[in-house]
Design goal:
- The structure is a single chain.
- With about 325 residues, the protein is α+β, with helices and mostly antiparallel strands.
- It has two domains: about 210 residues, no CATH class; about 110 residues.
- It has a five-stranded antiparallel beta sheet. A two-stranded antiparallel sheet has the order 3-6. Strands 8-9 form a two-stranded antiparallel sheet.
- The longest helix is centred in the last third of the chain and has 44 residues.
Length: about 325
């Protein structure tokens, strides 16, 4: 066996042993695998519909964080023959009964998966090991494993551009848990991933900390109120547009020489297209309201003009209106 092969195997065994100890230590606690990649900023922005001049200079990068979250339950398997392990393309997994995955803020929902969290075990031959932290610039496509409430909460509380540095300080004793907790308090009300974290823990049947729950509940309430305000605004705009359309149609129906039925449709084509857009948007808001269970209970929203809206009744009436319109459309087809 060559010296290089021996180093490869020894590094793998050492890092696997350390990782196994971490897994044992945090049984029943959250574990988070974060895959970090980078894109050229200008290419990324253009690829997502942003055009024109870019004000930055130099080699600007955009980071993407894809993460998988689960609750540790079980041990990592032992690997007797390292060479055989890699020759058979065996897959290493962090032991969880189920886990959830999400890509940054681009994915609206967590994807739920059975079994453990797969990770690229070949990185266990690296000097630092997969479960330790490094700089993304030195380790492009890096995979970081965070353990326990403290580290995982930190990831979802702190801005992603500095979170790994803070967690590394926490691990090596360069920062106390008290200072780390103070940082989380400073950032958690501003950082949208707190909501992501709480919603993920709910799927895993794991209770989030009370302060996280408060942020989550406040954001959910804010979204619910915003949905109602948007729906009311959309319905008002829809009514105004339908009034314009109906006014033109009435002129045509009166037998006036000014406009006929065909001209009435052509004259209001912009208004009709906008009404269709509004109705599709309303349906999207109604679907989201159902996900947030806004059709249930006694939930009211007070508008600025002092009018209370009974949310379940209002949503039900909009849904019924949309269903009746769809039924009429099918009958005409």
């Amino acid at each position: 066996m060559s010296k290089r092969d021996r180093e490869y195997i020894n590094n793998f065994r050492t890092n696997l042993s350390s990782l196994s100890e971490k897994v044992q230590e945090y049984q029943g606690k959250p574990v988070l695998l974060v895959n970090v990649t980078e894109d050229d900023a200008i290419k990324y922005l253009h690829g997502h519909g942003h055009h024109g001049c870019f004000g930055g200079h130099g080699n600007w990068k955009v980071q993407h964080h894809k993460y998988s979250l689960g609750i540790l339950d079980g041990q990592l398997p032992e690997v007797e023959d390292v060479k055989a392990h890699f020759s058979t393309s065996s897959e290493m997994k962090l032991p969880t009964k189920k886990h959830i995955s999400k890509r940054d803020h681009f994915d609206k929902k967590w994807e739920v998966n059975d079994g453990g969290i797969p990770f690229p075990d070949y990185t266990l031959v690296e000097r630092l090991g997969i479960f330790q932290l490094g700089y993304v610039g030195r380790y492009p496509g890096a995979n970081f494993i965070l353990f326990g409430d403290e580290e995982v909460e930190g990831y979802f509380s702190l801005p992603h551009d500095c979170v790994f540095g803070y967690i590394e300080k926490l691990r090596n004793g360069g920062m106390s848990e008290e200072d780390f907790d103070r940082l989380k308090v400073v950032f958690k009300d501003l950082h949208s991933d707190v909501r992501t974290y709480v919603s993920g823990l709910k799927l895993l049947g794991y209770k989030a900390p009370e302060e996280f729950e408060k942020v989550y509940d406040a954001e959910i309430l804010k979204e619910k109120e915003e949905i109602i305000r948007r729906l009311i605004g959309l319905k008002k705009e829809e009514g105004e547009l339908l009034g314009i359309i109906r006014g033109v149609e009435q002129i045509a129906e009166s037998g006036s020489d000014i406009i006929d039925d065909v001209a009435a449709v052509l004259t209001t084509v912009g208004e009709r297209d906008r009404v269709d857009d509004i109705r599709r948007t309303i349906l999207g808001h109604l679907d989201r309201a159902q996900e947030l269970e806004m059709y249930r209970g006694d939930f009211k929203v007070t508008l600025e003009r002092g009018i209370d809206v009974n949310v379940p009744d209002y949503l039900s009436s909009l849904r019924e209106e949309a269903n009746l319109r769809e039924e009429r459309k099918k009958k005409r087809a």
